[in-house]
Amino acid sequence: MAKETKRVLMTGAAGQIGSELAEALRKKYGRDNVLVTDLVRPPAALAEAGPFELADVTDRAALDGLIARFGADTIYHLAALLSATGEKNPQKAWAVNMNGLHNVLEIGRARGLVRIFSPSSIAVFGPATPREMTPQDTVLSPTTIYGVTKVAGELLCDYYVRKYGLDVRGCRYPGIISHQTRPGGGTTDYAVAIFYDAVKNGRYTCFLREDTRLPMMYMPDCLKCTLDLMDADFARLKHHSSFNVTAMSFSAGELAAEIRKHIPAFEVRYEPDFRQAIADSWPASIDDSAARAEWGWKPDYDLAAMTKDMLAALRNRQAAGTLGG
């Protein structure tokens, strides 16, 4: 009988996904059974809602000691430098993304952990990859250091599954949209910032072209997909660390048009910067049929439902004075 998760340690908990995933994991396993870690202290609402420790994933000995003291049997490894940030410091991106992952896998192997989640990204794809309905198994030719580390990370995770029988799982996240925590340096960040500026200012300057179409997912679906994959029967999985997942695809212009259904006077200017070249190397849409077949993935939100929910949540935060400047 497969071992069950009882104690969870998360790295990168202060990030966009980690901050909300931590809350979901604490609801599932109990507040005292989920230790969240990061290089920086997260907002008080997260840090004080359960155990928190400062941790550097590139320091294996310290991380191993933390895992041992807490008695963690499962790791959600989210610590990483994202695409736009990584291009500004490729050496640091490699050190954090690759050395950090290798440390987690080695600790998992040595300690016989139950399960490890290590997310990948659509950044693994590149100009040679089919842009429409990008297949599960296809050419991986990224043009960013973030993408390079994610390809290498997928291969390394799968190696640990084959070589050591370590249960490592991950999915290729598309752009993730949320209203609780702002993203941290990715190329799809515009799809979050545009909502904030629409509510606060009624206008937004976009760093991508109007016709730039990318795969996206709303945070509730991101959490659902992550937890469902980790709960899936290992015997059903033909893939492990590289599942394509998506919920919708839209262009910057299509998102702006959807927002105007709720805020008719909303204005957008398009001033593409260095992130445009990154976006142009990524898929416009994703084929996630492997995830649907192997563990029953199915999103709940489309563009219209997500936009309505995002704007309502941000307006509530604005009314409460918690939206920020």
Labels describing this entry:
325 residues; alpha/beta; Rossmann fold; 2 domains; six-stranded parallel β-sheet; three-stranded parallel β-sheet; 12 helices; 14 strands; globular
Query: How many individual helices?
Result: 12
Q: What is the name of the CATH class of the largest domain?
A: Alpha Beta
Sheet of most strands: 6 strands, parallel
Please provide the count of β strands: 14
Radius of gyration: 19 Å
The CATH architecture of the largest domain can be named as 3-Layer(aba) Sandwich
Q: Give the overall shape, derived from the CA principal axes.
A: globular
CATH topology of the largest domain: Rossmann fold
What is the average per-residue confidence, as pLDDT, rounded to a whole number? Answer: 95
SS-derived structural category: alpha/beta
- Give the DSSP E fraction (strand runs of 2 or more residues): 15-25%
The CATH superfamily of the largest domain is NAD(P)-binding Rossmann-like Domain
How far is it from the N-terminal to the C-terminal residue, by CA? 52 Å
Uncertain residue ranges:
none
Q: How do the strands line up in the largest sheet?
A: 3-2-1-4-5-7
